[in-house]
Amino acid sequence: MNVVYSTFCNVCTEILRRPQGCHTTHTNGESQAVVADDAHYIPRAVLLDLEPRVINTILSSPYARLYNRENVYLSKDGGGAGNIWAAGYTQGERLEEEIFDIIEREAEGSDSLEGFVMTHSIAGGTGSGMGSFILERLNSRFPKKLIQTYSVFPNVEDTSDVVVQPYNSLLTLKRLTLNADCVVVLDNTALHRIAAERLHIETPSLAQINQLVSKVMSVSTATLRYPSYMNNDLIGLIAPLTPTPRLHFLMTGYTPLSTDTEVSTVRRTTVFDVMRRLLQPKNMMVSTPVQRGINHCYASILNIIQGILSLTWSALQ
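Structure for Tubulin gamma chain, as requested:
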């Protein structure tokens, strides 16, 4: 759930330019936020957790004013799920009416609801267990709406103190396969490798890993917020990338990568160079085999390139 905080901060600052949420740019921000009476954006976000630490951090941050407090739900006992899938799932069942009162109220407030985007981890108890339950209920309550998830997979190279982590992951993967229309895989193993090899950070912090996640979420949904010729709705993004309903687990790549200290550095890039780098395994945020002699292929590819360029020129490249 720390990812939620990092991600929303990134998206909000990109759209709004300031923590107060003032409407300052010409965007299609209403697709993911509501404009309040005082002309500031309120994200169409529902924040759910079974323990208070992360959400309390969000509500005490400079971005607290952005969120609708009525869309924040914390379990009254605040004990969490103990990193157990079954505990999270059971608590989701027990709290179903309270949780879906919030979700359905937000859905009814949308002019033309297209779908849901869920951010969660598949290794812990709340993200895996309660996340699985919410996926199932979203699918049954809104059968004609799209469900996209940004799912954080565990780091297989790190010894976890959660011995049931593999079981949590497997049980959640079944629900992601059956109930989601699109799953963007964010592999902690690959994220740590990218931080070490590409950003030269020996021991990346959780905040630095979450920064990578937030960049992917921000860029991959940029066409929904900014005027564009294509891919300006959720179905336009998902449909070309999922040739069959069950082939909906997506890999992501991002380039050029930079840390906070390198943001001001300007690099010379071309569309061809960016597209070439995006296909390199070392820039993929999913662990992929890199043995030579093995033929790799992609069923479908979507490149989202930010900058000033000619569509005709980029097509010729």
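Residues 2-316 form a domain with the Rossmann fold fold (CATH 3.40.50.1440).
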